[in-house]
Amino acid sequence: MLKEDYNISITGRQFYDGDSDKIVLDTSGTYTQRAGSRFIAYREYDEEDPKIAHTSILKVEDGKVTMMRSGSATRLILEKGKRHRCLYDTGYGTLTVGVFTSELQSDLKCKGGKLNIKYTLDIDSNLSSKNEVTVEVKPKRMEKPL
After folding, report:
1. Which neighbouring-strand residues pair with 49?
2. pLDDT tens digits for 19-65?
3. Distance of alpha carbon 31 from the chain centroid
4. Is 115 exposed, middle or buried (CB count within 10 Å of its CB: 0-12, 13-18, 19+)?
């Protein structure tokens, strides 16, 4: 069970074929540090069945972020200046995609902070989309009892 003591705000932008999409997710989750890595974990709920939730985890290391989702083969490796072949679960099947990270900036500290990532996705070496993700992590304010 997640001890959801942090507010997590994720803004994702995707640019493809002259179009763009923006997704904003404001949720609660955890933020911990172990063995030199920082972990941001939160739940995402299925749009069609809100009873179904998947835990998403961002493992943040120096110059590298790994995105994982429970119950899924998805594992995206975002490492500045490098291209990785990664598995991405679409919900209808798993694809192998190329992920090239052009920017990765982290100012995450002990009590939270911000993560900015710019990357491209390609399928069979053909550009699929350009993507930007911003993740903000802030401790929740604890309510004082009366």
Report:
1. none
2. 999 999 999 999 999 988 999 999 887 777 778 788 999 999 999 99
3. 13
4. buried
From residue 111, give the alpha-carbon distance in Å to each of 5, 7, 36, 121, 136.
11, 11, 15, 31, 11
Element containing residue 105 per DSSP (H, E): strand 94-106
Q: pLDDT digit string (tens) for 110-143?
A: 999 999 999 999 998 888 899 999 999 999 986 5
Fold of 6-139: Lipocalin (2.40.128)
Q: Which residue has the tokens 């995206």?
A: 76
Nearest-angstrom CA–CA distance, 43 and 30: 10
Q: How many CB atoms within 10 Å of residue 22? A: 9
CB atoms within 10 A of CB 131: 19
Provide the pLDDT for residue 62.
Answer: 92
- Say how far apart CA 32 and CA 122 lie, in whole Å: 31
pTM given for the model: 0.87
Residue matched to tokens 């998947």: 54
